Amino acid sequence: MALSHCKLDYHKVSVSTLENKATQVATGIYTNATTFSSPPMTEAEFTHIQADFNTAAADYATYGAVKKTAFTNCQKKLTSSMDLLASYVDGIANGDESIIILSGFTPTSSMPQSNIPLNRIDTFMLKRTNSIGEISVEISSIKGHGSISYYCLCSEGAPIDNLAIVNGQLTLDSITNKVRYDFYKTRKKVFKALTHGVTYYFYVFASNTVSVAPISDVKTMMSD
User: Fold this and answer.
1) CA–CA distances in Å: residue 167 to residues 148, 151, 181, 205, 210
2) Which pTM was predicted?
């Protein structure tokens, strides 16, 4: 998914909306010190800037144009301070919408993003099926990386030495044991006609439009 970040939509809002947003942000950040442990300004500093804005807004509403410059300056100072806090929250959240919401800011909408490189797959399951000599492989789904293709290698009787993917190319040393490849795109694989009592070694990886993931750690299962 595209990384969410704090919306800066408070730049062009009414006085009351900006005031409310500033209060939400102050509450979100300064009452959640575990998550936001080192804001770029103290609560006292931000509260002072917010109070100056509220006073300037009230004066502008009462006295009109003669107080406009002071109001505009205070408004810019408050929005600049919120921009600073928004940048800080983005760094903490790293795209996590729940952290952005906790801070009092509004997250941008996330959208599919297919150009994020894939990491190694850490989770996949092996299971004997109800048929003799069959082992199924189920690879955990990868989210937020566009369209994914899943692959599996099955080595009979021994692991594959020096198996690696470099620059999108699969490399392995010359081997004597039988190796099966499942290059269908689905997450579920079934290897059939396996030899009874032989241990099989399984490796998985995936690809999207911009990358091929590194080979997983090996998992083993003996065929029945």
Assistant:
1) 18, 16, 19, 14, 11
2) 0.52
